[in-house]
Amino acid sequence: MDISVVVPLYNEEESLPELTTWIAKVMAEHNFTYEILFVDDGSTDSSWSIIEQLKEKFDSVRGIKFRRNYGKSAALNVAFEAAVGDVVITMDADLQDSPDEIPELYRRIKEEKYDLVSGWKKKRYDPITKTIPTKLFNAATRKMSGIQLNDFNCGLKAYRNDVVKTIEVYGEMHRYIPVIAKWAGFKKIGEQVVEHRARKYGVTKFGFSRFVNGFLDLLSIFFVGKFGKRPMHFFGSLGVLSFLLGTFMALWMIGEKLYHIAAGIPYKREITDQPLFYIALVAIIVGSQLFLTGFVAELVTRNAPERNQYLIEKEIN
Fold first, then answer.
1. Is residue 315 part of a domain?
2. b/e code 146-177 from CB counts within 10 Å (16+ = b)
3. How many domains does the chain have?
4. For 229-244, how does the pLDDT look when each residue is reduced to its tens digit (9 = 90+)?
5. Torsions phi, psi of 18, nearest 5?
């Protein structure tokens, strides 16, 4: 099968028939073999009933329904496990992503050999309260990940099948799938300018809290991706640095007092009366705790079942 179109959705009953018809039209024009995989993330409207009706009309339609709302990441993760197409294309169900972009996304994966191609909604129809925070997060993600994409959170993306079968999307990590893919070893990541259409039906399902969660998820991805299998390198380094800094300050104060005594210079204050003493003491304690944290985390990691799971791309026997 050429393409799996993955569509996560939550209360999008109005747009599903139009979206399905549009996708089917594009696929027929380019003679693609395909499937449309809808993942109903616990909708409370008639979205699932409409998917069942669409299945009767389109053989290519498949559907998965959650008992409750788990979030977009969960929907994508389940869909990635079920998708069978050589190229997997994700898009939102609200008609703000255009199915007309599918052929070019497919071509770039197949002919230009990209692992992942992310859409870039260069011209957006979102309010400024959404666009400005989005730009800030994109800039922060570029800086931390080294991936030069302008729109990490664009729902319209194309993947090689083995990419979606390798990565795991959880929590609210769908915003940073390119980063997850890079940490998994898929480094050929491209970008394509795509059309952003104004919302035709319903209202957005995302609130301000997604920006706070997005920042925390970015920190999680950065830490787990870089230090997940070697936490001692992170905690241990910080712990040793803090411990040595505190020790240096303590030795400095002791040496200063001994010098004053040996030289017969009056030493007006006790060491414990100096603020620097307490700073040194805190630095030593924090350093010891960080080092012990790294040690315990290292023991946990070494006993984890996936401690020696590595991604093998090719093998010759």
1. no
2. ebebbbbbbbbbbbbbebbebbebeebbbbbb
3. 2
4. 677 878 888 899 999 9
5. -65, -40
Model pTM score: 0.73
pLDDT digits (tens, 9 = 90+) for 275-286: 888 999 999 999
pLDDT at 308: 46
Last residue of a domain, one of 227, 252, 268: 227
Q: What amino acid occupies position 59?
A: D
pLDDT value of residue 298: 75
Give pLDDT, residue 188: 94
pLDDT at 28 over 90: yes
Residues 220 and 238 in one domain: no
Do 197 and 107 belong together in one domain? yes
User: Are 218 and 261 within one domain?
Assistant: no
